[in-house]
Amino acid sequence: MKSIAYILCALVSLLCAVMLLRGYFRGRHRLLLWSGLCFAGLTIANGLVFLDLVVFPQIDLYPARLAVSAISVLILFLGMIWEGA
Q1: Per-residue pLDDT tens for 9-68?
Q2: Hey, CA dihedral for 57, 63, 67, 73, is it positive or negative?
Q3: What is the Cα–Cα distance from 73 to 49, expressed in whole angstroms?
Q4: How many angstroms separate the CA atoms of 53 and 34, rounded?
Q5: What is the pLDDT of residue 85?
Q6: pLDDT at 78
Q7: What is the 3-state secondary structure (H, E, C) of the chain?
Q8: Dihedrals φ, ψ of 28, to 5°?
Q9: What does pTM read for this prediction?
Q10: Of 9, 33, 43, 67, which sits most exposed with the smallest number of CB within 10 A?
């Protein structure tokens, strides 16, 4: 049951990324770009959660998961600062 939840989290974040980036390409609002890039990174992080806890439980991917999540949120944070200036 946990693996289904991990997969669904990755799929939902992928759907959010696709919708945000599609909105950016239609309207060229740059905050949609930063948000879409953030969710694309979070999709990768959720995929790493699945790989870490289900596929390869003997390998610790926690540092990679944490780094990808931090970079994703940093992209959104910097985009918000840049667009606010």
Answers
A1: 999 999 999 999 999 999 999 999 999 999 999 999 999 999 999 999 999 999 999 999
A2: positive
A3: 17
A4: 29
A5: 65
A6: 96
A7: CHHHHHHHHHHHHHHHHHHHHHHHHHHCCHHHHHHHHHHHHHHHHHHHHHHHHHHCCCCCCHHHHHHHHHHHHHHHHHHHHHHHC
A8: 60, 35
A9: 0.93
A10: 67
Cβ atoms of 7 and 46 within 8 Å: the answer is no
Task: For residues 8 and 13, give the distance between their C-alpha atoms in angstroms, rounded to a whole number.
Answer: 9
Place of tokens 């995929």: 47
Distances (CA, A) of 7 to 23, 33, 45, 50, 85: 24, 24, 11, 7, 37
Number of separate domains in the chain: 1
- State the residue for tokens 């609002």: 29
